[in-house]
Amino acid sequence: MKIYLPLKLFLILLLFCFSLVANAQNETQKDSISNKLDEVIITQNKKTFTNSNGNIKVDVANSIYSSIPNSVDLLAKLPTVQISSDKESITVVGKGNPLIYIDNQKVGINDLNALAVADIKTIEIIQNPSSKYEAEGRSVILITRKFSKKDSFKTEISEVASFKKNCNNYLGFNSNFKKNKLELKANFNYNRLNPWESHSIDYQIPTAEIVSKYNVTASTKRKQYVFGGGLFYKINEDDYFSININSKLQSDTFPINTITDNKNKNVENNVLTFTDNDSKKNFVNSFLNYQKKIKSIDAQIYTGLQYSNFDQRLFTEINNNYNETQFELSQIRDQKFQVNYFSGRIDMEKKLKNEMKFEIGGLYSSANSKSDVAIFYTENNQNELSYYDFKEENLSGYTQLSGKIKKTDFSLGFRVENSNVIGKFRADALPLLDKNYTNFFPKAQFTFPIDSIKSISVNYARSISRPNYSSLSQGATYINPYFLYARNINLGPTITDEISTTFQYHDKSVKFSFYKAKDPVYNSFSFDDQNNIMTFKDINFDKSSGFTVDFTLPFTYKFWTTTNSLVFVLEKIEDDTAVFIASKPYLYYTSNNEFKLPKEYFLILNFWGLTKQNTGVFETNPRFRVDMAISKTFSKKWNCTLSCNNVFKSTIETEKFTINNINSKARYVVDSHEISLSVKYSFGKIKETEFKEKNADENSNRIK
How many CA atoms lie within 13 A of 441 on its CB side? Predict the structure, then answer.
């Protein structure tokens, strides 16, 4: 009922926009010609989306996308990018989890949450990254921030009111200041969020004669403080020094209500579970960067240091009501997780003759995490204490040669990484994990021009995907007396080999790719028949492979610009513990449409969908989503945007699979239907900015 008024307002404005479309061609000349020709200004409208060899680049700063309240929601609007329902992971369709860069600095999801959208100039989805972008990830999302060369000052204040199942509010402040060689940046956001989620799982264990079903709902009250600051000092034309710090402080209270029907042979129980949860997640990240050009050898050297800390605590009180009797306190859980991360790197780049470029670099990183769990069982007044420590050290080096031979562009590179991993329970004499391994990651790319508008490129790459540090801890979430969501301290990395070829014609492209992955990570069940407890967690499967055909088809017609992607996927996942079902091709499709209307109105209509997916083990339902928004700028200082996301309320996701002789059917209800109103006010002016960062941290995306 709360969204009826905003919905009516949205529909009224939408009808008004379409009435403006009818008069668009008659209005285009009136606003651009002055009666007094004091000066002639030649302007060129920039395309919001551009495509080169399947790499899509988005102009955020000069489009309606700059009105989206946070960076993660912004990425969700881009072609082929998918955000998980909890907004804790990002995937690119057909590519898995991408590397994420802000300028030349590799970051993670927490850094994205601390990045103001007002700072973003462009976002590029790079499908075939070179060795420069490290071995982790088969694609890169490169975010470029606005840069300035003139003395200037600009401040932007934004307010977003969001209406989902509950109301949410985003308040933001962003400021830039530049004087001579010094530039300062600062941002602060205060968010009051009330996310809601629900899911259910039906499962059967024929060998144990167990049939069980639960339905869980959670309504969260969340406070977020997101802030950051940076200093950039330009020593001369080639050298600079920069410091950047960003942070996110988050506190949650979220009661979880679960209804469970469980039948174990001839014993049936109906259980109501109420868990009262109090959570805190604090993150801080800091960078120190220095770049120097050595003119005597015509080379550029970069050095960088990074320190990150992530601190999380979850306190839970669990009450169960069996068969409509009364609620009784069952458990008290106190779980703490902390990870400290340090890295240092050096890179050198030298331009050679004949348009050649040689790059070489190295990195050292160290991560230390502590995972403490304390559980009090009221039934027997017993305490269970567990302390687990994890340490990982990585030493890596890379080299790359790129350039042009006759008309052929090429890039050849490789990376070598050595990892030393130790995981140990403090009560044990010997470590549970003790690994030392070295991996070699070659990459190659060749582009052959056919003529001035057509080209063919061929790529090969080997990459690695490592679990984030939180996934390697011993934490767990209690759902009911028979079911736990747990992390997995034994998770290992995934190695992927991929080959692809792309045909480019003007700004349109088609890409064919094939990949094979060893030890991919997917969901799994395990059953403890002694304690009658099911555990849901990620494990390494045996292998997976896939073939994709990706069409990128942008075009422009008068005031309408559209970018369309069609990705045909045939994916096969295999594991000895899982029941294999036939793999079938599925289709991902997306269309981003922007309409430039008279009187400085902008309208966007985006939609994406997935057909039914059968990937060898998992079967998921088809999905379809439509987003709409209209934006208007007033007096060059005020911007208002009215948005409606998931217009048709497509909120249900289902998944079926059988593993370890457990049959499962899951249903997730996603709270994604949203109507929001964004208002931004800016004063001062910055034309371009010099603020730069380079990557000192190759694993910061794992700190969450």
Answer: 30
Give the side-chain half-sphere CA count within 13 A for 16: 15
Cβ neighbours for 554, distance < 8 A, ≥ 6 positions apart: 47, 49, 50, 51, 507, 508, 561, 562, 563, 564
Other C-beta atoms within 10 Å of 187: how many? Answer: 22
CA distances from residue 520 to 27, 482, 515, 543, 620 in whole angstroms, order as listed: 55, 27, 12, 6, 18
Predicted pLDDT at 54: 77
Distance CA 300, CA 380 (A): 66
Tokens 């989805």, located at residue: 125
As a whole number, mean pLDDT of residues 173-191 equals: 88
Q: What dihedral angle (degrees, nearest 10) is formed by the CA atoms of 74, 78, 80, 81?
A: -10
Closest CA to 546 of 511, 576, 570, 522: 570
E strands in 47-138: 49-52, 55-59, 81-83, 90-92, 99-102, 105-107, 120-126
* Residue given tokens 């990949």 in the structure block: 515
Q: How many CB atoms lie within 10 A of CB 55?
A: 19
**Letter for the amino acid at 385?**
L
DSSP 612: -
The pLDDT tens digits of the residues spanning 343-378 come to: 888 999 998 887 899 999 998 999 999 999 999 999
Per-residue confidence (pLDDT) for residue 45, from 0 to 100:
55
pLDDT (mean) for 331-335:
95
Q: Which two tokens stand for residue 270?
A: 């109906």
Rounded CA-CA distance 101/112 in Å is 9
> What mean pLDDT do residues 100-119 have?
75
Among 402, 389, 486, residue whose Cα is nearest residue 443: 402
**Contact call for residues 501 and 53 (beta carbons, < 8 A):** no
- Match 């494990």 to its residue by tokens: 539
List pLDDT tens digits, range 534-569.
999 999 999 999 999 999 998 888 889 899 999 999
The rounded Cα 682 to chain-centroid distance in angstroms is 28
Q: For the residues 177-188, what does the mean pLDDT come to? A: 88
Structure tokens belonging to residue 559: 């005031």
Q: Any idea which of 28-37, 138-147, 211-220, 254-263 has the lowest mean pLDDT? A: 28-37
Q: Which long-range contacts (CB under 8 A, 24 or more apart) does 623-630 make?
A: 623/650, 623/653, 624/648, 624/650, 625/650, 625/672, 627/77, 628/10, 628/14, 628/603, 628/604, 629/64, 629/67, 629/603, 629/604, 630/13, 630/14, 630/17, 630/601, 630/602, 630/603, 630/604
CB of 318 within 8 A of CB of 333? yes
Res 700 pLDDT > 60: no
* Tokens read off for 522: 């997917």
Cα separation, 633 vs 147, whole angstroms: 22
User: Is pLDDT at 118 greater than 80 in this prediction?
Assistant: no
Q: What angle do CA 90, 95, 97 make, to 5 degrees?
A: 30
User: What is the largest distance, in Å, between two alpha-carbon atoms of the chain?
Assistant: 91
pTM of the model: 0.84
- The three-state secondary structure class of 469 is helix
For strand 240-253 and strand 196-205, is the pairing parallel, antiparallel, or unpaired?
unpaired
491/473 Cα distance (integer angstroms):
10
Tokens of 379: 């039934």
Predicted local confidence at residue 21, as pLDDT = 40
Reply yes or no on whether the pLDDT at 622 is more than 50: yes
Distance CA 465, CA 521 (A): 9
Q: Residue 535 CB: number of other CB atoms within 10 A? A: 15
Cα dihedral across residues 63, 69, 75, 77: positive or negative: negative
Residue 362 in contact with residue 396, Cβ under 8 Å? yes
Question: pLDDT-derived band of residue 1, with 50, 70 and 90 as boundaries?
Answer: very low
Task: Give yes or no for residue 5 having a pLDDT over 50.
Answer: no
Q: Token pair of 394, please?
A: 């990585």
Residue 228 contacts residue 176 (beta carbons within 8 Å): no
